[in-house]
Each structure stands twice: as structure tokens, then as C-alpha cells.
Amino acid sequence: MGNPELARDSGETAWVEYLQQLLASKLEAEAAAGAVRLSPVDGLFGPLTEGSVRYFQQREGLPDTGIVDDATWQALEDTSAATATTASPIDLRIPVQLALHWDDTTIERMLQDFDTFDLATHPGARLTLGSGAGPLAGNGSVQLFNREIPLWRNWFLTETTRLTLDWSRDHGFELGLDNEAEFGVRPLRNVDIFIHGDLDLKWQPQEARGTVDWGGSLNLRWRFDMP
């Protein structure tokens, strides 16, 4: 008997968990680059899992139905595909484009904005990076890593790291790493109780100085999928 066909809201919890583990393995590089967002291994076939399945199907040249059929199972369980992918050359070039937008302004106001321009606070600034660099997570911020790691029973650990780039006339460039972590337990199906921690590192090369900020909090979160 083969693997069952899975789709959105499938009730085969054990099989959905197996599917989510395979997706996490097959799409590890893309998820780290921010090209796709993976669901936690929770046995729930929601929109994140469906989106991951569609992304994988597109990558493998399969119809992107979001339904895990025999062809999708075969591609997911094919160990040779991962070997071929890791052997491919990596292009480290990252094209960057900065776009500025004003809804209602004048030439004089635009020139004033240029005199005091700050990438992080300009309301119309958008820093776009090419594929493979990760999605924009705010002005001048790129997500490098985002993964939930299942621990024993219902416990979990989530880690997120973002690379930030800011520029202002007063301080020049500012580089940074914004790190977040969540450690907690899932006592009910869609309820999380967790400790959230932040560690933000900033460095201004022009002034040769940096800062370290950290903090933490206890949180309760209710998760649900919109239809």
C-alpha cells in the first residue's frame, strides 16, 4: 500500500508530519534564503504546508496543485535529487535596487529629505534584493534564517536571524544582526506558551562603534489558519 494522497486540511496527522519533515529537508536551503516559508512539524496541513508543497512541485516541474499525489511523494522521497542540488554551483552575486516613493510632496521637500535621508525611517524607501538573498523584512532588512525546531513531545524552539543595512547622512552605514528566539510548549493544538528573547547587534564602520541590545518576555499565542 502506497502513501496516501494529502491535501489541505487532511486529517492524516502522522502522514502530514512525515510530509512536513520531508519538505523541511528538501527545501532547507530555500527556506534559509527566505524563498519559501515552512510550516512547523505539527501534523496540520494548513496554508503554509500547502504553499511549501506548491513551491516544491514548481521546483520539480510538477503541476503545482498543492495536492501530494504519487508523483510528489516520489520526488520528495528521492534521495538522489538532494545530492544533485548540493553539487550545483552557487552564484553569490546579489543585485540591489533602492526605490524611493512620495505620495504627496514637492521638489523642495524632496531635496530636504535627501539632505537628512535615513533608509530605516524614510516612509517610502524600499530596498529590493535579487532572488536567493531572502525576502525584505522591513526597510533595509533581509531575513537570513527562520526555522522552528521540534523538541521532545510538545516543546519547540524557533530561531530567526535578519541582516540589517541602514544609512544616514549623520552616521553613514550601519550594519546589524537582529536575532530572535522562542522556546516554549504547545499544550493545546493551536496554543503556544513561550519565552521570547531578542539579541540585536549594530555596527557603524564610519564611527568604528557598535551597540548590543537584548531583552526577553513571557508570551501566550493562539494560532489559527484563515480559510
TrEMBL record:
It comes from the Bacteria. Residues 39-76 form the Peptidoglycan binding-like domain. InterPro entries: Peptidoglycan-bd-like, PGBD-like_sf, PGBDSf. Signal peptide: none annotated. Coiled coil: none annotated. This is Putative peptidoglycan binding domain-containing protein.
